[in-house]
Amino acid sequence: MSYIYSDPKRANDPHALPDVEVFYDKEGNFGCFNFDDDGSFSSSLGPGWYYAYGQIGCLWDSDPVGPFASEEAAIKAMRKERRVDLRNEAEPIQSTH
After folding, report:
1. Is residue 88 assigned to a domain?
2. pLDDT tens digits along 22-58
3. Which pTM was predicted?
4. Is residue 66 one of the residues assigned to a domain?
5. Does residue 45 belong to any structural domain of this protein?
6. What are the CA-CA distances from residue 34 to residues 26, 40, 41, 69 (Å)?
């Protein structure tokens, strides 16, 4: 499990913390849980890479999203969802204070 910045430009901000956890779940225990007719649990999602928004040491602020085939695919999907522009990834954040 690793925490990353949803927007990599925030990594240069000394007051920002990573805000997304990216992790692999081999059992696919996230998503919509259902009780089968026999009373057992089943999940509509399978094993793979997931991401969830949240701060380190805190509960997630979102449900996990996935599964994805790779960690890179999960990160790319998250940043696409957030519409993060990675063209200027190396530019430091300018403080307004």
Report:
1. no
2. 999 887 766 555 556 676 666 567 889 999 999 888 8
3. 0.71
4. yes
5. yes
6. 18, 8, 6, 24
DSSP state of 81: H
**Domains of the chain: total:** 1
The end-to-end CA distance of the chain, in Å, is: 34
Angle ∠(48,49,51) on CA atoms, nearest 5: 140
Please, how many CA atoms are within 13 Å of residue 2, restricted to the half-sphere of its CB? Answer: 8
The label of the residue with tokens 């990573």 reads: 18
The pLDDT of residue 94 is above 50 = no
Domain that holds residue 66: 2-82
Tokens of 82: 């957030």
The answer to whether the beta carbons of residues 63 and 16 sit under 8 Å apart is no
Residue 21: closest CA among 61, 48, 68, 53: 53
Angle ∠(89,60,92) on CA atoms, nearest 5: 15
Residue 53 lies in a domain: yes
